[in-house]
Amino acid sequence: MRALLLVDVQNDFMPGGALAVKDGDQIIPVLNELLKMKFDAILATKDWHPQDHGSFAASHGKEPGEKIDLFGLEQILWPVHCVQGTKGAEFALGWDVGKVEKVFYKGIDKTIDSYSTFYDNGHRRTTGLELYLREKGIKDLYVAGLATDYCVKYSVLDAATLGFNAYVIKDGCKAINLQKEDEEQAFQQMREAGAHIITSKDI
Ligand code: VGL
Ligand code: ZN
């Protein structure tokens, strides 16, 4: 059984959004190709923060890009993004959201960030995704979305650790690249964890 997991395809990560990922909109045609393929489940995630989330620079009177200690974990501070119920947190336009059977929400607890779609950054709480996949008998997880160097990477690393066969669809992902090498390092780390880096054409 195989599932497609679409990570954080939300307005705020699109060009013009609050935490814009360069060329983030270029993944949309790729998602449309993926959505024509046969998967046993199509799942998605949403970054879903309260407006005073601890990962926001504004919550600390600081500038985006600074690093702080957030209740014992190192936290990069981001612009305010993906606030629950706002336009920026909605799925980006241009793909058939109706095909998604379940959405998993993350980053809800303001005291801790959550890059992975399986757990928060401290591995304290699960999002329910693992159990959902296990109950459906899903072994193969195909991942696309935003951003390669954060939510895609940490989701894929956890998927591999949990024993899923993880496939990262390279042309269906774009990176934030705070440092220009972040994207390539993310692919390398995912590869080392046992994930397969593929393109949509390989499926
Ligand atoms: C993300 C930074 C902050 C992501 C979410 O979806 O990759 N990155 N929040
Ligand atoms: Zn976030």
Could you explain the architecture of this structure?
- This protein is of the alpha/beta class and 203 residues long.
- The chain has a single domain (2-51, 80-202), classed as Isochorismatase-like (Rossmann fold, 3-Layer(aba) Sandwich).
- 20% of the residues lie in helices and 23% in strands.
- It is built from 4 helices and 8 strands.
- The protein has helices spanning 27-34, 129-135, 148-161, 182-192; strands at 2-7, 41-47, 67-70, 73-76, 102-106, 140-146, 165-174, 196-198.
- The strands form 2 sheets. A 6-stranded parallel beta sheet has the order 5-2-1-6-7-8.
- A hairpin with a 2-residue loop joins strand 3 (67-70) and strand 4.
- Helix 3 runs parallel beside helix 4 (182-192).
- The longest helix has 14 residues, at 148-161.
- The chain is globular and about 45 Å long.
- The two termini are 14 Å apart.
- The mean pLDDT is 98.
- The structure holds pyrazine-2-carboxylic acid and zinc ion.
- Residues 47, 49, 55, 78, 81-82, 107 line the site of zinc ion.
- Residues 8, 47, 78, 146-147, 150-151 line the site of pyrazine-2-carboxylic acid.
- According to CATH, what is the class? Alpha Beta
Distance N to C terminus: 14 Å
| Order of helical and strand elements | EHEEEEHEHEHE
CATH fold call: Rossmann fold
CATH architecture: 3-Layer(aba) Sandwich
- List unreliable stretches of 5+ residues: none
Q: Tell me about the largest β-sheet.
A: 6 strands, parallel
Mean pLDDT: 98
Give the number of DSSP strands: 8
User: Helical content, roughly?
Assistant: 10-25%
Which ligands, by name, code or SMILES, are bound? pyrazine-2-carboxylic acid, zinc ion
**Order of strands across the biggest sheet?**
5-2-1-6-7-8
Number of domains: 1
Computed structural class: alpha/beta
Q: Taking Cα atoms only, what radius of gyration do you get, to the nearest Å?
A: 16 Å
Give the CA-based shape: globular
Strand content: 15-25%
Superfamily (CATH H level) name:
Isochorismatase-like
Total of helices: 4
